[in-house]
Amino acid sequence: xxxxxxxxxxxxxxxxxxxxxxxxxxxxxxxxxxxxxxxxxxxxxxxxxxxxxxxxxxxxxxxxxxxxxxxxxxxxxxxxxxxxxxxxxxxxxxxxxxxxxxxxxxxxxxxxxxxxxxxxxxxxxxxxxxxxxxxxxxxxxxxxxxxxxxxxxxxxxxxxxxxxxxxxxxxxxxxxxxxxxxxxxxxxxxxxxxxxxxxxxxxxxxxxxxxxxxxxxxxxxxxxxxxxxxxxxxxxxxxxxxxxxxxxxxxxxxxxxxxxxxxxxxxxxxxxxxxxxxxxxxxxxxxxxxxxxxxxxx
Length: 298
Description:
By secondary structure, this protein is α+β, with helices and mostly antiparallel strands. It folds into two domains: 5-54 and 159-295, no CATH class; 59-154, Alpha-Beta Plaits (2-Layer Sandwich), CATH 3.30.70.3040. The chain has ten helices and four strands, in the order H-H-E-H-E-H-H-E-H-E-H-H-H-H. The protein has helices at 5-18, 20-56, 70-81, 94-104, 109-114, 133-144, 156-198, 200-208, 213-252, 266-295; strands at residues 60-64, 86-92, 123-128, 149-153. The protein has a four-stranded antiparallel beta sheet with strand order 2-3-1-4. The longest helix has 43 residues, at 156-198. The protein is elongated and about 100 Å long. The two termini are 20 Å apart.
């Protein structure tokens, strides 16, 4: 028996409107779960952008002893320049250090009045060839043990903390999204099951007159697909809103200077939308196919 377009449209509409409460519940659950999926992708991409910027620009600072002699300073410089793991090592004298100090503490007159250029240490700003956290930490540990070195500072601990925090948030959001996706699949499946049960007599008659299983399945599968599609479209709209909310939070939030490099690009937004769309299709089609295969014999 050939599938008629008018029949499919009529039956699908009837199925969607027969139990409005269950249909709305399915759509809302799909929307919430897919919105979390999209937000998870945004947060993951933003965290990757943040740590990538820190890693690409990571450098460590080697502070030399305050009473170091010119000869000893030359030895430290030679050690840095000859290290095959180091790209550049720039010496920072007291005048430049003091200029940076004044920019950093601009507006804090008490601090500026009590600190002179002679009170600040000289240092080398070192950029390694490999900016990975492991490589930088190894260099830091090495130069902390070298003679005439007062201290070595690096941002590796901050990078580790940010990676750990972003991984924790992503795992939590992902687990919650998986739970809601499972609930969405069950709701779609149960909606189709209810619709098929309500029309069990009609289905029996259609089988008796020669209707194939696919002829009966198509309207019910289209019902599940539409539910997933509506939820997916709403979730994609939420992704764009979430991007704006995150940007506003970072711009207006106090104490979030460290996170100003947490950026979400347009490509990240489209990636999140792509994942939402793919998940919506797989969720709706998969649940509908399973429901019609399992509950067709009513």
